[in-house]
Amino acid sequence: MDLKRILRHLTTTLWSVRRALPPAAMQAIEGAIRKTESTHEGQLRFAVEHALNLPHLLAGASARDRAIEVFSHLRVWDTQHNNGVLIYLLFADRDVEIVADRGIHQHVGEDWAAICRRMEQRFGRGEFEAGVLEGIAAVGDHLQRHFPRRQRGPNELPDAPVVL
C-alpha cells in the first residue's frame, strides 16, 4: 500500500482539475477532437478524473485499470466499426492511458505509450492544455494514417471532454 499515493488522491480535488483545465481549455480540447475526427474514421474521447476513490486505491488500482473501466462506462467500445479511442488522464498521478477498441488497437498497438509519455512530460511542466492538445493531435495522426476519412459518417461519440 502506497500511503503517499493515497494521501495525494485524497487531497486532489475537482478544483485542481478546473484550475489546470479551465473552461477555455476544455472548449479547445473539444474543438481539437472535432477537428481531428474530420480527418479519419476514428471516434475519440478525452476523460480526466481528479483522483481514485478509496476502494480503488486500497485495491491497488492503476490508471490503466481505471481507464479500461472508463472506456466501458463511457461506451467508447460501442461504435459501429469498433473504432473508439479513449485518452484518460488520472490527474492525481499525472498518468495518461490510451485505450483503443479492437478495430484500432490491432493497427496501432504500442505506439500509444510514446504519446502518453509525451503528454505526461508536458503535465510535469504544468502545461496541461498543451499536453492534451498534443496528445489528441498525435492520436489523430495515427488514426488518419490507418483509418483515413472515406465518407462522412455519424459522430457516434460526444466530442466534449468528460470530467469524472
Structure description:
The protein is 53% helix and 13% strand. The chain is α/β, with parallel strands linked by helices. It has a single domain (3-148, 156-163), classed as Diaminopimelate Epimerase, Chain A, domain 1, CATH 3.10.310.50. The chain has a four-stranded mixed beta sheet, sandwiched between helices. A hairpin with a 4-residue loop joins strand 2 and strand 3 (95-100).
Shape: globular
By CATH reckoning, the class would read: Alpha Beta
Strands of the widest sheet, in order across it, are: 3-2-1-4
The proportion of residues forming helix, as a percent range, comes to 40-55%
Q: Please trace the helix and strand order, writing H or E for each element.
A: HHHEHHEEHHHE
Question: What is the second-level CATH architecture?
Answer: Roll
DSSP, total strands? 4
Low-confidence segments, given as residue ranges, are none
> Termini, distance in Å?
24 Å
Q: What's the topology here?
A:
Layout: H1 3-11, H2 14-20, H3 23-37, E1 43-49, H4 54-58, H5 63-73, E2 84-90, E3 95-100, H6 102-108, H7 111-124, H8 128-146, E4 162-163
Primary descriptors:
single chain, 164 residues, alpha/beta, Diaminopimelate Epimerase, Chain A, domain 1, four-stranded mixed β-sheet, globular
Question: What would a concise description of this structure say?
Answer:
The protein is α/β, with parallel strands linked by helices and 164 residues long.
